[in-house]
Amino acid sequence: MSEERVLVTGASGYLGRTVTRAERAAGRDVVAIDAHGEAGIEQVDLTERAAVAELLRTERFDTVVHLAAAAVGAAGLLASARTDPVMAADVNVAATAHLAHAARESGVARFVYGSSTTVYGPAEDYDDARVTEAACLRPTTVYGATKASAEHLARTVLAGSPTRFTAVRLPLVYGGERWYGGALADLMRVVEAARAGESFEVELPADEADWVHVDDAATAFGAVSAVGEPAGAYHVVGHTGSVLELAQRVADGFGAREVSVRPAEHGGTGALPLIDDSRARQGLGFAPKRSDVEAAAASLIAGD
C-alpha cells in the first residue's frame, strides 16, 4: 500500500505548523504550502485559481487539510477580518472554493477544513447548554461569517463527488508556538509578564468558554484523516473554563506577585455557546491530553 499523501494549506501558520508536524509524525507524506514560502513549505497563493488547479492536477493527494486563513500581523484572525472584510472573503471563502473544486476534479478522497466555533451566534440564541454540530450557524463577526460561508460552499462544491468533506470546528486555541495575541492577547500578556517578573494588571471576564491546546487540535485533524467514514463536522474541546481562572492559575504558578488578575466588573457580551464534542470523542476516539484548567495552565507556564 502506498504512503498516504496529504496536502496541508496554511502550513506556516500557528495551527498549520503543528498539524504538519503531527501528520508527518504519523507517517504521512505531507506537502506543506502557504502564501509565504519558507524552508520545507512551498509558496502557493490559494487566491490564484490557476495555481491551485495546477498543483492538484500535477500531484496526487489522498487528503487535503485546509487551514489557510486571512490574517495580518499580530492582530489575529477576527481583527484582521473585521479590518479588511474583502481580503477575508478572498482568502477564507474564494480560495476555499478554488481548492474544493480542484480537489473534486483531481479525485481527492478527503477534504478536511479547519473551521471555528465563531460560526455560531451568541449563546443566548441557543436553547441548549451545549450546542451540537447540527446547531444553526448564526455568525456575528466577519471572520465567523467567512468560516460559515466557506463550510457551506466547500460542502456544496464537493456534494455528489467521491471527495468527503469534514469541518473541524475549533474553540479558543492556545499553547505551542502561538506568537500572536488575537483573542488571547491579555492572557498572553499575563504569561509574558509573569515569566519576566514584570508588573502587569488586567481585568478579565469570568464567563466560561471552550479551549483546546494546539497539539490536541492537531491530533483531531489526524484522527479525521484516519477514520473510515468521518462525519460532516466535529467539535473538539480540551477543557471548559474562564480566561480569568486560567490567567490567575498561570500567575500563581509563576509566583508572580507583580501580576494582578482581577475579575472584570461586567462579563463579556455576546459570548459564544459552549459546544458538545461527544461526536469527536465517540467517533474519532478524541481524548485531549490537556483536559482541565490545571493542565492548560501548566502548559502555558512550561511554554509548550
Automatic annotation (TrEMBL):
Top-level lineage group: Bacteria
Residue ranges annotated for the NAD-dependent epimerase/dehydratase domain, each copy included: 6-227
InterPro entries, alphabetized: Epimerase_deHydtase, NAD(P)-bd_dom_sf
Any one Pfam family match given in the protein's UniProt record, by short name: Epimerase
Similarity-based family: Belongs to the NAD(P)-dependent epimerase/dehydratase family.
Protein name, entry field: NAD(P)-dependent oxidoreductase
Organism whose genome encodes this protein: Egibacter rhizosphaerae
